[in-house]
Structures are given as structure tokens and as C-alpha cells.
Amino acid sequence: MLLLLQSSPPIFALCSGIIGLLVGSFLNVVIHRLPKMMEREWHEQCAELNGTTAEPAARYNLVVPRSACPHCGHAISAVENIPVISYLFLRGKCAGCGTRISPRYPVVEAISGLLSAYAAWNFGFGLAGLAAIVFVWALIALTFIDFDTQMLPDSITLPLLWLGIILNLNGAYTSLPHAVIGAVAGYFILWSVYWLFKLATGKEGMGFGDFKLLAAIGAWLGWQMLPLVILLSSLVGAVVGITLIVIAKHGRNIPIPFGPYLAGGGLIALFWGQTLTQSYLQLLAQ
Questions:
Q1: Which of 20, 59, 66, 189 has a CA-to-CA distance to 234 between 20 and 30 Å?
Q2: pLDDT tens digits for 123-174?
Q3: pTM attached to this predicted model
Q4: Cα end-to-end span (Å), the chain
Q5: What's the pLDDT score for residue 274?
Q6: Measured between alpha carbons, how far is 138 from 31 in angstroms, rounded to an integer?
Q7: Rounded CA gap, 147 and 208, in Å?
Q8: Chain centroid to CA 4
């Protein structure tokens, strides 16, 4: 089987896409539950600091309780949990009460499947290809969690950072010195922007999770890719932000998460960073 995957890029991409769809279903659970788990942990820590005992709560993690409809409590069966297909078969409604299911669930699954397949096709069978798929999954989870809660959990960003450095011990994407400098520079750049903005306006322009995410991207791709990532994420973030303010009447005082744009810039740099950089340098040389 390994020889088949190694010798046939289309089959490797197809298998990776199918696995990506399945993992996308789990990512929906992570996106929904991880912030709630963090809030529970914070409440317990606050109670401990106050010298009180938090009220015992039912077990809640990424596995327990079983996924169910939030409206009627209908437990989702395995047949109803097939990525994308089940949503289409159920016509986007709960099998128990008929309440509409958010289309974001199949969207996350489809994005995970497509990007996993492309990562496998782009890098081929091997450490770089398999790791790129994991990178994609982590950025998908971080993107949607940040959209929902404006949080980038340390439980994802920090392991992602260390994994990037470990992978580059053997130069999976860049050299180890470039990876270490990328991690330090990624954190320091946004940390500096944060403090300059705060000193100038008295407000916080971004969260510490953004520093850690850019540090993780730098650890994976090296410091040379950071300018491209920052440029792409800033351009997309500016366009989306202006569009929300002008068209959707999004208040200027309402914060817009920056993590999704960093993640998007990181993915573009992962797949096409070298090509974009070389094209830019050739354009300057003319």
C-alpha cells in the first residue's frame, strides 16, 4: 500500500482527500468544543484562586458527550455523520426535529478534504506531504475558532510551532536556522506592532494568539516567507474589513479577527510562496 501511494500521486491525493473529509468532521467538533473547554478551565482556575470549589460539571471534551442536535438532543448516528454526503441526504436538516443545520459543517469538511488532497498532490508522498496536511488541518481549526471567538488556542498554536521546528531539523521546508529565526521574528514583528499601536492609541490592535500563530508559520516556512505572509494577510484583512464596514455596516469599534488572514497567508506561502517570491524578484529586476 505504501509503495502504491508513493508511486501514484493521484491515488495519494485521493486518499488524502478522503481522510481530509473525515478529519474535517472532527475539526467541526474541535471548533465548537475547544473554546467551551477553555472557558470551563478558566472558571475552575478562577474558583481555585478565590478559594472556592467550582460546581461539578458533566464530562465535556472532544470525545464526550456524543454529538447531538442542540435543539432536540437527537444523537447523531454514524450514517448521519458522513462528511458532506449526510448533510446533502438530510437536506441540511436534523433527522430528529427538522431544525436547519448550519451549512458551515459541510463547508469545513469540504475545505479540509480539498486542501488535504492538494497538499498531497503538491508535496507528494513523504514527510513534507504528510506534515503539510497536518498544517492545513491546524490552520482550518484556528481560522474558524478565531472567527467565532476571537481566540487562537495555545493548545494548537504552540504544538504547531514546535512541530515546525522539529520537522525542519532535516530541512522539510527550510533549514533549521531559518526556522528558528522565523519563529522568533514572527512573534517579535506582531508583538512590536501590538505595542506601537497600543502606545499610540491606548487600544489593543490584536491578541497574543496572533503573535504565536505567525511564529508557528515562521517556524514551518522560515523567516524569508514572513514578509509575504504579512503582506497577503494584511491586504486580505484590509479588503474584508473595509467591505464589512461599508457594505455590512460592521461597526468600526467591533474587532475583526486577524488569525484567519494569517492562516490564509500561511497556506498561500506554503503552496506558492517560492513561485510568488521569484516572480516578484524577477519583476523588480526588469
A1: 20
A2: 999 999 999 999 999 999 999 999 999 999 999 999 999 999 999 999 999 9
A3: 0.92
A4: 49
A5: 87
A6: 11
A7: 16
A8: 30
